[in-house]
């Protein structure tokens, strides 16, 4: 089935400009949505708990900050951009008591709706605007006059205008400059989790670290291993981004292209593909979501250990030293792009 893709001319900004929007959370996605909504002429208020360290950042950016409950009470449109693991209790404590008929409840990712951790009442719109990129780049692209593609979905259309409203929101954060694809909460949630686990984050990090380990354990210089397995990956992926795998293969040497065809499938072989299928089935059954919520409820013991191990991997120390010599590479991640 061909996807329906919407661009700027398909979206009516006035639909969201006439609403008050509460953005709950001011992290990677929250700051990007809030600042770009404001710059698109929308009345936006931020909802953050007392004591949240994000409060100062939002206020420094000139945004009005209230508690999540106060912001939800004021708003017509409530965008939930707190961590996925915090959304259940945020919804129960702050949003639900203020979710009156006709309001719109929006998400940046479908996990809590897809797996039933949140069940909104039937008289509100429930929709999603999910950028297909990290929040800091969502903001940077908006500021640069570009945009990150977004997935847009409607779970519940109480007003009959949920989709055009979500599309207007997407336009306000730059998404329809690049393309907004209509989907469902189920499809977004399952493909997003699969992508980040098997390819974009899990797969790519493991590939880079393992390549670095093989070269350094064989006695090659860590600096050379870093450039080969991490730094140059961006340059190769840039070519894929611009013109697909075919353009990358056009630009590399025939020697590299032959190595690609003959060796790549030995690295990502049928065992890896079977494991990817297993990962997908854990996502589809809800096993992954239940595991992650339980890990968070238990205080994140594995997450904390794995984060520390990742930060201590030798590739990080080598990279820090080398990036220090390339002022144009270590572009800081900021709230202003
Ligand atoms: N990161 C990304 O680029 C992407 C994220 N998404 C989705 O966007 C959503 C937000 O993720 P992300 O931006 O990564 O989150 P972050 O972890 O970057 O930021 C979370 C923000 O929520 C605040 N927060 C924490 N608890 C609460 C609460 N109870 N009520 C209100 N605010 C709270 C945090 O404040 P404090 O400073 O106090 O911690 C912080 O400002 C998730 O659904 C995620 O799946 C979708 C696409 C990409
Ligand atoms: C790839 C990770 C992501 O899904 C994203 C930036 O799109 C996320 O959840 O952060
Ligand atoms: Mg994603
Ligand atoms: Mg994700």
TrEMBL record:
It is an enzyme of class 1 (oxidoreductase). Belongs to the ketol-acid reductoisomerase family. The active site is at 109. Keywords: Amino-acid biosynthesis, Branched-chain amino acid biosynthesis, Magnesium, Metal-binding, NADP, Oxidoreductase. Residues 3-183 form the KARI N-terminal Rossmann domain. One of its GO terms (cellular component) is cytosol. Pfam families: KARI_C, KARI_N. Its cofactor is Mg(2+). Residues 184-329 form the KARI C-terminal knotted domain. It catalyses: (2R,3R)-2,3-dihydroxy-3-methylpentanoate + NADP(+) = (S)-2-ethyl-2-hydroxy-3-oxobutanoate + NADPH + H(+); (2R)-2,3-dihydroxy-3-methylbutanoate + NADP(+) = (2S)-2-acetolactate + NADPH + H(+). Substrate binds at residue 253. Mg(2+) 1 binds at residues 192, 196. PANTHER family: KETOL-ACID REDUCTOISOMERASE, MITOCHONDRIAL. This is Ketol-acid reductoisomerase (NADP(+)). Its EC number is 1.1.1.86. Mg(2+) 2 binds at residues 192, 228, 232. Binds 2 magnesium ions per subunit. GO terms for biological process: isoleucine biosynthetic process; L-valine biosynthetic process. Pathway: Amino-acid biosynthesis; L-valine biosynthesis; L-valine from pyruvate: step 2/4; Amino-acid biosynthesis; L-isoleucine biosynthesis; L-isoleucine from 2-oxobutanoate: step 2/4. NCBIfam families: ilvC (TIGR00465), PRK05479.1 (NF004017), PRK13403.1 (NF009940). Involved in the biosynthesis of branched-chain amino acids (BCAA). Catalyzes an alkyl-migration followed by a ketol-acid reduction of (S)-2-acetolactate (S2AL) to yield (R)-2,3-dihydroxy-isovalerate. In the isomerase reaction, S2AL is rearranged via a Mg-dependent methyl migration to produce 3-hydroxy-3-methyl-2-ketobutyrate (HMKB). In the reductase reaction, this 2-ketoacid undergoes a metal-dependent reduction by NADPH to yield (R)-2,3-dihydroxy-isovalerate. One of its GO terms (molecular function) is magnesium ion binding.
């Amino acid at each position: 089935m061909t996807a329906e893709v919407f661009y700027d001319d398909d979206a009516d900004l006035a639909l969201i400009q006439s609403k008050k929007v509460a953005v709950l959370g001011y992290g990677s996605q929250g700051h990007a949505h809030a600042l770009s909504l404001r710059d698109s002429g929308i009345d936006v208020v931020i909802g953050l708990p007392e004591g949240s360290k994000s409060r100062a950042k939002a206020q420094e950016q000139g945004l009005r900050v209230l508690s999540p409950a106060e912001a939800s009470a004021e708003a017509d449109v409530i965008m939930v951009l707190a961590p996925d693991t915090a959304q259940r209790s945020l919804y129960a404590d702050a949003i639900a008591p203020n979710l009156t008929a006709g309001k719109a409840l929006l998400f940046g990712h479908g996990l809590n709706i897809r797996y039933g951790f949140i069940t909104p009442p039937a008289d509100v719109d429930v929709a999603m605007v999910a950028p297909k990129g990290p929040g800091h780049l969502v903001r940077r692209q908006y500021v640069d006059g570009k945009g990150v593609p977004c997935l847009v979905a409607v779970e519940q259309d109480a007003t009959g205008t949920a989709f055009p409203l979500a599309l207007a929101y997407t336009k306000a954060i730059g998404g329809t400059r690049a393309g907004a694809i209509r989907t469902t909460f189920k499809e977004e949630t399952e493909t997003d989790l699969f992508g980040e686990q098997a390819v974009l984050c899990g797969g790519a990090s493991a590939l880079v670290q393992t390549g670095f380990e093989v070269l350094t354990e064989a006695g090659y210089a860590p600096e050379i291993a870093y450039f080969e397995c991490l730094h140059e990956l961006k340059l190769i992926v840039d070519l894929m981004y611009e013109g697909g795998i075919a353009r990358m293969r056009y630009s590399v040497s025939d020697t590299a292209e032959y190595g690609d065809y003959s060796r790549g499938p030995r690295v990502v072989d049928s065992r890896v593909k079977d494991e990817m299928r297993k990962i997908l089935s854990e996502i589809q059954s809800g096993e992954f979501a239940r595991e992650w919520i339980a890990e968070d409820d238990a205080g994140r013991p594995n997450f904390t250990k794995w984060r520390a191990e990742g930060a201590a991997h030798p590739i990080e120390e080598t990279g820090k030293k080398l990036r220090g010599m390339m002022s144009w590479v270590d572009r800081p991640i900021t709230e202003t792009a």
